[in-house]
Design goal:
Layout: E1 6-18, E2 21-27, E3 43-50, E4 53-60, E5 70-75, H1 81-88, E6 95-99, E7 116-122, H2 126-139, E8 144-151, H3 160-169, E9 174-180, H4 196-203, E10 211-216, H5 218-230, E11 235-240, E12 262-268, E13 271-277, H6 283-289, E14 307-312, E15 315-317, H7 325-330, E16 332-334, E17 338-340, E18 344-348
Parallel strand pairs: 7-8, 7-10, 8-9, 10-11, 12-18
Antiparallel strand pairs: 1-2, 1-6, 2-5, 3-4, 3-6, 12-13, 14-16, 14-18, 15-17
Helix pairs in contact: 4-5
The protein binds FE2/S2 (inorganic) cluster.
C-alpha cells in the first residue's frame, strides 16, 4: 500500500452543479498518473490555507477511472469553512494541493460478471455512487444497477442531468428512483426519507442483489446496513458522509513547565522523533502541534489516512469507522482518534 502524498494539481474545469455544490476537475500530469490511479468509490483530500489555517477535507471522486481528469463535487455545508471557500474561491487555472486517492469504499468492475447492484445515497452521498455507476455499467456489460437517491427536492439533486444521461445510455440496465423529502411525488413510496423502513420495502421489490452501497449521513449509516444484511444481500458497502465528532480527541495545549501525559515516539519516513502528548490529546494533534507533517485528512475516524502501528505501549481509540478487524489485531490504530494510555508509546507510520 503506497503512502498518501500531496501534489499540486491544476483546476481545468469548474461547474456549479446546484445552488450549493461545485464540481472541480483536476488535470493530472503524465508523470503522476500512476499515483492518482483509483478505484471507483475512493476520495481525494484537498488542502488549502484558509484565513491562515492549514485545512484539509476529503471529497469522493465522482469521475470514473477511465475519464480524463479527476473530478470531485463539494457541497457547501452550513458553517463549513472549507466547503464555503471551495464554492467561492477557486477558479479555472488555479492550483490546489491534492492528496493521492485513498479509501476502501467501492468495487472494481469485473467484465465477466453478471451482478446486480443497489445503491442508497443521500445528498452528496451520490458522488462516489456516480463514479461506481459509470464504472460498473461500462465495465460489466452483464450487470444491472438500481439507484435510490434521497434529496429534499428536485432542484437539490446533485448530478441530476448526468444521472438522466446515464439512464438513457443504459436503458435496460440502470433504474433510478429519486426519493424526495420536501416535494410530493405521485408514487407515495418515493416520498420521505431513505430510512430503514422505506429501504426494507424498496429492497424487497428488487431481484436478488449481490452488492449494496450505502452513502449518506450518520442516521442512514446506522440504520440501513443491518436491514440490507438481514434481507440477504451478501455484500453491503458503507461510506459515512458526516463525521461523528462526539468524544473525538482535540488538540490540547501543555502549559509551560507542565509534565505531558505521555511521550510518543513517531516513526515517519524513516525518521524518529519524540513528542509530548497532553492529557486527552490525540497523537496526530500532538504531532501537528510539534510541527510534524504527518498524513491525516478527516480527523473523524473515517478515512484511515492517519493509520499507523503501535509498536510499543498502548493507546485508546475514541472511534473507528475504517480499520478492519485484522488491522486492529495487528496493532494498527487511527492516530487522529488515539490517546496514549501508557507513559510511552511508539507509533510507526511506515508500517503497512
Ligand atoms: S484522519 Fe481520517 S481516520 Fe484519522
Amino acid at each position: 500500500m503506497a503512502r498518501p502524498r500531496f501534489h499540486t494539481l491544476r483546476v481545468t474545469a469548474l461547474r456549479h452543479d446546484t445552488a450549493d455544490a461545485v464540481v472541480l476537475t483536476f488535470e493530472v500530469p503524465d508523470a503522476l498518473k500512476p499515483a492518482y490511479r483509483f478505484t471507483p468509490g475512493q476520495y481525494l483530500t484537498l488542502r488549502a490555507e484558509i484565513d491562515g489555517q492549514d485545512m484539509r477535507r476529503s471529497y469522493s471522486l465522482c469521475s470514473a477511472p477511465d475519464e480524463p481528469g479527476l473530478q470531485v463535487a463539494i457541497k457547501r455545508v452550513e458553517g463549513g469553512v472549507f466547503s464555503t471557500w471551495a464554492n467561492a474561491v477557486p477558479r479555472v487555472g488555479d492550483t490546489l494541493s491534492v492528496m493521492t486517492p485513498e479509501g476502501r469504499f467501492g468495487l472494481t468492475p469485473d467484465a465477466e460478471a453478471g451482478r446486480c447492484f443497489a445503491a442508497f445515497a443521500a445528498g452528496s452521498g451520490i458522488t462516489p455512487v456516480l463514479s461506481l455507476m459509470k464504472a460498473l455499467l461500462a465495465g460489466e456489460p452483464g450487470s444491472r444497477f438500481f439507484l435510490f437517491n434521497g434529496n429534499r427536492s428536485t432542484d437539490s439533486i446533485m448530478f441530476r442531468s448526468e444521472i438522466e444521461d446515464l439512464k438513457d445510455r443504459y436503458l435496460s440496465r440502470l433504474s433510478v428512483f429519486h426519493v424526495l423529502s420536501r416535494e410530493e411525488q405521485d408514487i407515495p413510496m418515493l416520498n420521505g426519507h431513505l430510512d430503514a423502513d422505506k429501504v426494507r420495502r424498496l429492497a424487497a421489490m428488487l431481484p436478488p442483489v449481490d452488492h449494496a452501497f450505502v452513502c449518506g449521513p450518520q442516521p442512514m449509516i446506522e440504520g440501513l446496513p443491518a436491514v440490507l444484511t438481514e434481507i440477504g444481500i451478501p455484500h453491503v458497502h458503507v461510506e459515512r458522509f458526516t463525521p461523528s465528532v462526539d468524544g473525538r480527541p482535540r488538540p490540547v495545549a501543555i502549559a509551560a513547565g507542565a509534565k505531558p501525559a505521555a511521550i510518543a515516539t513517531i516513526i515517519h519516513e524513516g525518521s524518529r522523533v519524540e513528542i509530548p502528548v497532553a492529557e486527552g490529546e490525540a497523537i496526530i494533534d500532538a504531532a501537528l502541534r510539534a510541527g510534524r507533517n504527518l498524513p491525516f485528512s478527516c480527523k473523524g475516524g473515517m478515512c484511515c489516512t492517519c493509520r499507523a502501528k503501535v509498536v510499543e505501549g498502548k493507546v485508546e481509540m475514541a472511534v473507528n469507522y475504517s480499520l478492519e478487524p485484522w488491522e486492529l489485531a495487528a496493532g494498527f490504530v487511527l492516530t487522529c482518534q488515539s490517546r496514549p494510555v501508557t507513559e510511552r508509546v511508539v507509533v510507526d507510520f511506515d508500517q503497512v
